[in-house]
Design the sequence.
């Protein structure tokens, strides 16, 4: 029986990963129709679907009605959101979609309100006895609080960084550094946009008449290895695949290794259960100077580098389809040690046709 799957945010890296994983499902790929949507009518992802439409953004008051109308008209069986902005509206109206026979791959609104705000997430972890996963941090929304937090961290021997409480990827992340630029650095190194002086940071954030700015976390800078952990809880087991993020460009991992890090697997399952997450989730950790793992953020959706898990033997989209659509579970043999290197690949469009050039 044909199943209709709607994947949102066709312009996002996650969309490409999800649609490739759907088309590679072993048991049902021939019975799946992929629908896609995006705010941008020129999004290349829309051309990669079987059916597509231009949608409103997740923050629009017309978003839910627009999605519901399309899903009803096209008998959509499952929505897989790939944009953080769509998670809360879809979760709030999940019961309405389900009443139309359409599942939605999102956790509860209660869980999302905690997970999507790092300040609330860290407070939740502290209150639930999981403070060992929380980096040293302070919350601020004006220059005075920012300077006090920076002084408190540095006088206690920490290097400091900042990140908005509500942001994902590398948006708003900066390492506070006053290191001078040497002649050698200028001539031989690429510009590092992640470093900023405390003076320039204050000027940037206080450049308007309003001296307040959105909540910002001033945190200890973690110098150890960074990991991304992809999870999915089924009825009878918990799939968990940690992978290193050894080289990162613009917030996206371009080199890493799938690693059987049991410490992070245990931590991820504990956090997942305490937060009452559902289905897929991506947890990011980084080790501190004492080799203790600290939580960076949680993405309650498929990650853009989930393709690495598929290469290691676990198609997490296939797992989700089997779980939601009531198909018998498959067993997976994880190939620990699988490395990933991300390289450029061009996709061309001429009219309605997409194509790639041959060669290696």
Sequence:
């Amino acid at each position: 029986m044909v199943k209709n799957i709607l994947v949102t945010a066709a312009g996002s890296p996650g969309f490409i990963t999800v649609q490739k994983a759907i088309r590679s499902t072993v048991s049902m790929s021939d019975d799946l129709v992929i629908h896609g949507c995006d705010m941008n009518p020129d999004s290349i992802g829309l051309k990669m679907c079987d059916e597509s439409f231009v949608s409103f953004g997740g923050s629009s008051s017309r978003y839910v009605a627009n999605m519901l109308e399309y899903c009803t008209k096209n008998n959509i069986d499952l929505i897989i959101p790939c944009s953080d902005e769509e998670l809360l509206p879809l979760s709030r109206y999940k019961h309405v979609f389900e009443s139309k026979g359409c599942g939605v791959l999102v956790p509860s609104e209660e869980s999302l309100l905690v997970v999507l705000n790092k300040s609330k997430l860290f407070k939740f972890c502290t209150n639930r006895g999981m403070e060992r996963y929380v980096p040293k941090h302070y919350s601020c929304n004006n220059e005075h609080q920012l300077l006090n937090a920076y002084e408190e961290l540095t006088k206690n021997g920490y290097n400091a960084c900042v990140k908005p409480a509500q942001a994902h990827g590398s948006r708003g992340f900066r390492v506070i550094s006053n290191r001078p630029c040497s002649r050698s650095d200028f001539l031989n190194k690429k510009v590092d946009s992640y470093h900023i002086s405390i003076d320039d940071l204050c000027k940037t954030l206080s450049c308007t008449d309003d001296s307040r700015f959105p909540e910002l976390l001033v945190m200890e800078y973690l110098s150890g290895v960074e990991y991304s952990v992809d999870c999915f809880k089924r009825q009878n087991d918990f799939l968990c695949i940690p992978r290193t993020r050894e080289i990162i460009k613009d917030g996206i991992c371009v080199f890493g290794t799938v690693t059987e890090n049991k410490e992070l697997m245990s931590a991820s399952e504990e956090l997942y259960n305490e937060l009452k997450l559902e289905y897929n989730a991506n947890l990011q950790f980084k080790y501190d100077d004492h080799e203790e793992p600290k939580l960076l953020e949680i993405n309650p959706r498929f990650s853009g580098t989930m393709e690495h898990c598929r290469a290691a033997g676990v198609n997490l989209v296939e797992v989700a389809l089997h779980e939601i659509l009531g198909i018998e579970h498959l067993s997976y043999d994880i190939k620990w040690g699988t490395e990933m290197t991300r390289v450029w690949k061009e996709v061309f469009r001429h009219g309605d046709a997409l194509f790639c050039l041959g060669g290696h």
Residues 112-118+223-341 form a domain with the D-amino Acid Aminotransferase; Chain A, domain 1 fold (CATH 3.30.470.20). The chain has twelve helices and 19 strands. The longest strand covers residues 212-220.
